Amino acid sequence: MNVRTRSIVAATAAGAMLLLGLSGCAGASSANSGEPLVGLIIKTQDNPFYVKMTDGAKTEAASLGFNLQVASGDGQSDVDSQIKAIENFTAQGAKAILITPAGDGIVPAIKKAQQAGIVVFAMDSPLGDGSGVDGTFATDNKLAGELVGEWAKAALGSTPARIATLDLSTDQIPVDVARNQGFLEGFGIDLADPTKMWDESDPRLIGHEVTDANEAGGRTGMEKLLQKDPTINLVYTINEPTAAGAYQAVVAAGLQGAITIVSVDGGCPGVTNVKQGIIAATSMQFPLEMSKQALQAVKAYLADGTKPQNSEGLDFTNTGVTLITDKPQQGVDSEDTTFGLDKCWG
User: Would you say the pTM of this structure is higher than 0.85?
Assistant: First the structure.
């Protein structure tokens, strides 16, 4: 939440989503061949995470005999386009819909799709309670945050922490909340309400800014934070593009070496930035596993109605998370950037 950047796609003059056939066949010929239609709805097409997720879905769908089509919206919170895409796939007679949710506002459309006999799985960003989805495949984003928080706590040692966070948006999107709160908890910050950001009272927390999870937002947000307090020495970022932008602001302020940046994602540019020392540590997620496992679950459901089982202690199926750093800390499990560059995406 993987958290991503803006899309350039518009399917209609009203801003509906573009549907792209990925099975190698047009819709009519696919229907004639008897391949079940599966809709994949991603948040954006200009972020490597979703590109990799789509590539993995394309490969897996071909092996399973599905006609896969993908729809992409215009940003992390583009609920309206996702609703339109769900409605479009429902009208086309899809057998399954896989969606990376932009927000709980899509739930009524999901329920209508289910009433039409469509199985719906969420990916990457779990929906809230009562969403009614038939399964969710996602990174344990809270754990991802905890890992970089634990690492940062160990890395700072006895140095007094001056912490800032660069988050996604003001909308309290679940993936945003989970990563932020996980980081704080991993570092040892008492949470006021685990389901909300920015209500903590710990004096080590200097401030936060929202970034739209992109490089430009990261730089602007970091500039604002440093104007507020140039003594910040630890920055958590919602994702690696945000971290790259934050580092630009740190360098411009002449503070490189004084500020530790940690992040979440596991994209190849981000892991490279870990290797170069721009990001100190990041939590890697695995988009190929998300799309692969979700499509295998579609196959099982269409065969005999079987629904996926949640991972122990979670309300979704965890598709994996691994801490990547070249500065391992005692008591914190991690892999180095050699592992990271072998497993990264983008």
Answer: no
